Amino acid sequence: MTEVKKGNWWKRKTLTQKVLFIIGAIIFLFSLAAFIIFMNCRQILGDEIGDAIFGVGVSNGWVLVGRAMASSSLNWFISLIVVFLSFIFIFVANFITHLFDNRSRKAMTVASLIRSLFKYAIIIAAICIILIVWGVDVIGIIAGVGVLTLVIGLGCQSLIQDIISGIFIVFDDYFAVGDMVIIDGFRGTIVEVGLKTTKLQDFGGNIKSITNSSINTVVNMSRLRSVVSVTLSVSYNEDVERVEAIILKEIEAIKEKVPNIIEGPWYKGIDNVSASSIDFLVLCFVKEADRFQVTRDLKREFYMCFKKNDVQIPYTQVTVNPEDEKKREKASPEDVLLALKAQKALRGIPDEGEKKPSKKKKNQVVEKVLES
Questions:
Q1: What angle (nearest 5°) sits at the alpha carbon of residue 178, between those of residues 175 and 180?
Q2: How many domains are contained in the chain?
Q3: pLDDT tens digits along 160-195
Q4: pTM
Q5: 134 lies in the same domain as 207
Q6: Residue 65 zone, left/alpha/beta (φ > 0; ψ -120 to 50; rest)
Q7: Edge-first strand listing for the sheet containing 218-220
Q8: What range defines the domain where residue 190 resides?
Q9: pLDDT tens-digit map of 98-138
Q10: Domain boundary at 177, 198, 223, which?
Q11: Of 308, 335, 358, which marks where a domain is finished?
C-alpha cells in the first residue's frame, strides 16, 4: 500500500514539479556532502587543511562546534528562552483576540488586524533581544540606520500604503470578516483582513489575496438584505386574472418550501408584455449568500405550480403565412404608361424626339404627372 501511495504522489506531479523536485534533491545531497566533508576535513583531506580551517589541536568540526557551544551556552540558553516566550506571547495574543472576535463582524476584523500587528511586533522585539544577548549594539545599529530610513521608506512606499489602507479599511468599516463583497470585480467572502492584504474566498473555495492599497471599489452586499426578482412567463392564451389568482393562492405554500426567504415573496404585477409571453413579477428578500439558490428554488416551485394548475408556458412558435387566395386587380395599360412616364421623368430620361430636359423642366414634368 505504501508503494502505491508513493507512485500516485509522484504521478500527480507535473513535469515542471518533477524537474524542480529532482534539482532540489540534488542540491540538498551536494550540500549535505559538503557539510560532512567540511566538518571532517582533517580526516578526509589531511592535517594540513584541517590545521588551516580549524587550527592546531582541533580534531574535527564537531569538536569546534562543541567548544563554541560550551563557551556561549548562556547566550544560547537565553536565545532559546526568548524564542519560546515569543511563541507563548503570540499564542496568548491570538487566544485573547479570539475571545472577542465572535461578537460581531467588525470585532472579527479588528481582532484579525490586532493579531497581525502583535505577531510582527513580537517577532521584531525578539530579534532585537537576541542580538543584544549576543553583544550586538542594536541601539547603535538603529541610530546608524537612521540614514537609511528615508531610502527604505521610499523603497517601501507600497508596503506603507498597504498598512495605512488596512487601518482605514478597519476603522472606516468598509467591510468586515464574513461580509460578502465584490472588490474590483472579484466576488467572495472576506476571510481575513491583515496589515498588508485582504483575503477573499469565492463559492468555489478559491482564495484571492488583494493588497489593501490596490482596493479601488468595494460593493458590500452583506449590510442590507438582497432582493430576488423572479419573472414568470405565461402564454397569451391564458387568462391574466386566472394566472394572478393562482399565483396569489400558491405563494404562501411556496414560501414554506423555500426556508431561506427572509421576507416575502410578494406578487408585484405584470412586469413586461414581450413578443411571445406575458411576464409576471415576484419579489422577496434574502441573504446575499442565498440569493442564487433562492432564485433557482422559486423558479422551480412556480413552474411546478403552473404545471399543476395547467397554466400554459410560452415557447417559440413559427407561423407560416398561407398564399393569398383572393385575386387582386392588375394595372391597366393606361396605368402602365403613366407609371413608365413617371419613372422616366424621375430618372431624367427624355421621351423620344425630345431633348434631355433641364432640372427645372424635369421638376415641372414630375409635378404634372403627379397632378394627373
A1: 65
A2: 3
A3: 777 777 777 777 677 777 788 888 778 888 888 877
A4: 0.43
A5: yes
A6: alpha
A7: 207-211, 197-201, 186-193, 180-183, 218-220
A8: 73-223
A9: 776 666 666 676 777 777 778 888 888 888 888 888 777 77
A10: 223
A11: 308
